[in-house]
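hey m, so remember when u said the C-alpha cells were messed up on ur end? i reran from scratch. heres the input so u can diff it against urs
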Amino acid sequence: MKKNKYGNSRSLNKKEEVKKMTSIVSDTDLLSKRCKFNFHYFTVQDAGQNFSEWNHLELINLMEKMKTFSENSLHYWSSQNLGSSIGHRLEIYDSFPPEVNTDFIEPLHIPIEARWARFRLQNKVRVIGFILEEKYHNDAHPKTSFLFDTNTFYVVFLDRDHTFWKSEKA
C-alpha cells in the first residue's frame, strides 16, 4: 500500500477516492447539465436597476436564486410551473416585448440571434436576459473557434418592479 510522506495510507486512498468522485465525467457530477450565467451584456436603463440600487437582502436573494437555478439546465427551468401562477420559472419569449407592454428599450448591443427571457425570482422581481436557440449549440464562432453554449443565460436587466413585460401576471 502506498504511503504519503506522513505514513498515512488511508488518507492517501481517501484523497484518490474523492478525486474519482469529483471528476467531471463521473456519474455523480452533472456539470454539463448545469446552466450558467453571463453578465457581459448587463446594462442599466431607467426602468431597471443597477446592483447598487438593490439592498443587501435583495442581492443575497438574487445570488441564492442563481445558485439554485445553476443546479439544473435552462430547459429544466423553462418547464417548471410557478405553482398556482401562470407561467414558468424561466419564461422564454419570441422577441423583445412590444413598446406598449414594456418600460424598457431594446439595447442595440444584444445579438440579433438572442431569444429574450426572464427568470422570476419572487413576486414582481425578475432577472431579464437572453438565451441562444438550440440550433447554435456547439457551433464554433468563426473567428474565435469557441463553441456557443445554449445553456447560458445572458443577464441584461434587473427588473424589481415587473415592467419588462407588463402584460404578464406578477
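this time it looks ok to me. The chain has a mean pLDDT of 88. if urs says something different then somethings off w ur setup not the seq
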